[in-house]
Amino acid sequence: MTSKHSADSSATRTKPNIQKAVTLKTKLEVIKQHECDEGSTLIRKQLSLAAFTVTTINKHTEEIKQAAENVTCM
């Protein structure tokens, strides 16, 4: 009787994606570059971000700007 799975099946598994938190400073940089009419592709390559991350930041521009105004320096 043959097995459906090979003995090396654990070796072919990929690592799960690790989520990174994007800092407020980085988000503001994305917004600044977007407002200067830089393309999303260029922004994400310069800052090493995923395309969806840049899109999400651009969608939430107003909320991010409000959060930046409410930040207190320590």
Report on the architecture of this protein.
With 74 residues, the protein is an all-alpha fold. It has a domain at 21-69. The protein has helices spanning 24-35, 40-47, 51-59, 61-69. Helix 1 (24-35) packs antiparallel against helix 2 (40-47), helix 1 (24-35) packs across helix 4 (61-69) and helix 2 (40-47) crosses helix 3 (51-59). It is elongated. The model has no long low-confidence stretch (mean pLDDT 86).
Number of helices: 4
| Shape, principal axes of CA atoms | elongated
Portion of residues in beta strands equals: under 5%
Q: How many beta-strand elements? A: 0
Q: What is the averaged pLDDT score?
A: 86
* Cα distance spanning the termini: 67 Å
User: Helix- and strand-based class?
Assistant: mainly alpha
- Taken in chain order, the helices and strands follow as HHHH
Overall radius of gyration = 20 Å
Low-confidence stretches: none
Helical content (DSSP H or I, runs of 4+): 40-55%
Describe the sheet with the most strands.
Answer: none
